[in-house]
TrEMBL record:
Residues 55-92 are annotated as: Disordered. Residues 72-86 have a biased composition (Basic and acidic residues). The chain crosses the membrane at residues 32-51. This is NADH:ubiquinone oxidoreductase. Keywords: Membrane, Transmembrane, Transmembrane helix.
Length: 92
């Protein structure tokens, strides 16, 4: 449930409802079609961010093109540094 309240996903849902309300009484133009395509891309990116965040929290690998990837790499480097010093990592 924590992921569903993310700002990206919440913003995409709100934008979708606004687009839906605005398109009820108007005809489809290239501008409205472009708005729907843009909304679809935003929704896909928000869902992808939620999936990547969840995968990272579970300790599973994340795609290198994800914004979460850099954070995950830093965590792996910290853990490797601690292990090389003989310090046991904390379990989550």
């Amino acid at each position: 449930m924590n992921y569903l309240s993310g700002t990206g996903l919440l913003g995409a849902i709100m934008t979708g409802t606004t687009l839906l309300r605005g398109s009820r009484d108007t005809q489809l133009t290239w501008r409205s079609a472009l708005a729907w395509v843009s909304w679809g891309i935003s929704l896909a990116l928000a869902i992808g961010a939620v999936v990547d965040t969840r995968r990272a929290k579970q300790g599973r690998p994340v795609s290198p093109d994800s914004p979460v990837y850099a954070k995950q790499q830093r965590e792996h480097e910290k853990q490797a540094k601690k292990e090389s010093k003989g310090i046991k990592p904390l379990k989550r």
